[in-house]
Task: structure prediction
Amino acid sequence: MMKILEIYLIKLFNSLIVAFLAVMLVLVFGNVVLRYVFNSGITISEELSRIMFVWLTFLGAVVAMKEHAHLGIDTLTKRLSPNAQKFCVVVTSLLVLGVCGLVLVGSWQQTVINLGTEFPATGMPVAVQYAAGIVASVGIGAYLVRNIYVVLIGQANAQDLMMGNSSLDQIETHGNNQNNAGSGK
Result:
């Protein structure tokens, strides 16, 4: 059930990222053309583009976390023993989880503070912009907890969970194939 929810959420996030990028392109390009050719513009273009850019960035961070696509430097950790690598993955994941907690608290506070404040052109609550931090910190935090769990139970090795390496989905698939091969299935 959780795997299905994850698949649909990531598809939703990817779809939103594409939609936001397309709408931003149309709004900004259209606004530039209107300003220089017709000496007018789209009033809400700048605000909507900014809101969509914030959401695009934070949703992209969650998708990148799932795919282990964030920038990572493994010069030291790849030289360590497997147990030391596991320790490093758990410690760094806990540190990032702490940062996610700070982002969550700060985003929540800013969202609540700005519920009554509206953007001047669109009339949308400014809280919409800050809510992206809540979604991202919860999403990234969930992946960090899962990564810690699979390392501690031995389902994945630390090298596979380091940034820039294969995704956890591939690890789970290979792990299941190896388990099935060993049992004669």
Remarks:
- The helical segments are 2-38, 45-66, 82-113, 127-152, 158-161, 168-182.
- The CA atoms of residues 20 and 92 lie 31 Å apart.
- The radius of gyration is 21 Å.
